[in-house]
Amino acid sequence: MSATPFDEMTNADASVRAPYHILEEWLKEQPPQALGLMSADAEALFRRLGITFAVYGSNEGTEKLIPFDIIPRIISAMEWRRLSKGIEQRVRALNAFLYDIYHRQEILKAGRVPEKLILNNSAFCPEMMGLDPARGVYSHIIGVDIVRTGPDDFYVLEDNLRTPSGVSYMLENREAMLQLAPELFQRYKVAPVETYPETLRRTMESVAPAGVHGSPNLVVLTPGIHNSAYFEHSFLADQMGAELCEGQDLFVDGGKVYMRTTKGPERVDVIYRRIDDDFLDPLTFRPDSMLGVPGLFDAYRAGNVTLVNAPGTGIADDKAVYVYVPEIIEFYLGEKALLKNVPTYNCTHDDERAYVLEHLEELVVKEVHGSGGYGMLVGPASTKAMREEFRKKILARPDNYIVQPTLALSTCPTFVDKGIAPRHVDLRPYVLCGDDIRITPGGLTRVALKKGSLVVNSSQGGGTKDTWVLED
């Protein structure tokens, strides 16, 4: 992992990498003001569509527009084939791991993953023990966060198997680029992403409970309008032709789930839930939850409704379990991991913890259950006081943190105030898993808009780009 970031467009000798040749020509053809005008048009478009996200604890109003960069990120067909194989392998292994954890727990008996890491974990859901979900699939919608550090060096940063968000931005980014730069699409053969909602619908229908006649009735269950990803919930429900429901719109009767409608109760077969496990059902999980549906889990256990994703999937994307994913792939599939993990220090080991505490200024510290760029320390960008605070936290709860080297994330050309400049990026491809595993070609590229910044999360000032996977 070199200290100089890998530039995805330009080689070290200033020549342009093959996937970007046409883009370079196109950029040279643009008049001086063109990109600025395109950028303003994109912002107006997103504002009109209402694509915002909520910023909790912000003083400047709660709704913000996610900055969109008009220069696409381009991935060659060969690079994508390699990535897809590695992603599919990972998804198969993690679903096998979940099945085992909630059944015979062979991997724990074999000592390949520490038992207490799973059984004492807040993401482990004992209520799921012995339950057989439709087609044996626990996580139907998965986002795998990938970073690149060289021409052939891709690393998985984390797996998101609970309720991965951001897919609406992937779809709207493509829609915006088709409107803003149609002539560029005529020069490139770009794999489509707009089939995602239809593929999501097909995936959900494929895991409907046994005995459903005709088309299964699908709903998207949202915590409501105040949730930061509410735009996405309503967008996906609309695109799939599914009903958008809050907990109060659903009820359980006779072990089956129904939706309240103006024509009377309507049976529900598959629920794409965007509510955390704890809040799904006040009779099984948190009794104070106002977001869920009383009796929902019993209806699920009885096989009368499918929950997408299943409760308890969080155990497979826990950051402490992440360390063992190469081991998990080998255990269930008998194969070596095709995509590497980022080297990770385990703070519960005395020698690794000692190294971490000595080198905090060089490392990235992440809370095991943290997300969205919160609860983390980026060593090179930290102050002495921040490092001291994290030192105390690690000593108090070594099991609550994982630590990784600061990667030199690859950069892509990005339109900024002063023109075009390289900015660090990551990638979240989306995987749908039901009767088959389907990976949308591309995914969401997140970009750190501040010069030198490695934090790409929208909640921390990052933006997004359209991701173009080229077809052969």
UniProtKB/TrEMBL annotation:
One Pfam match, given by its short name, reads CP_ATPgrasp_2
| Domain Circularly permuted ATP-grasp type per the UniProt entry, residue ranges | 72-448
What residue ranges are annotated as transmembrane? none
Q: Which InterPro entries match?
A: ATP-dep_Glu-Cys_Ligase-2, CP_ATPgrasp_2, UCP005522
UniProt superkingdom: Bacteria
Q: Which SUPFAM superfamilies match?
A: Glutathione synthetase ATP-binding domain-like (SSF56059)
The coiled-coil segments of this chain are none
Q: What PANTHER family does the annotation carry?
A: BLR5612 PROTEIN (PTHR34595), SLL1039 PROTEIN (PTHR34595:SF7)
Q: What is this protein called?
A: Circularly permuted ATP-grasp type 2 domain-containing protein
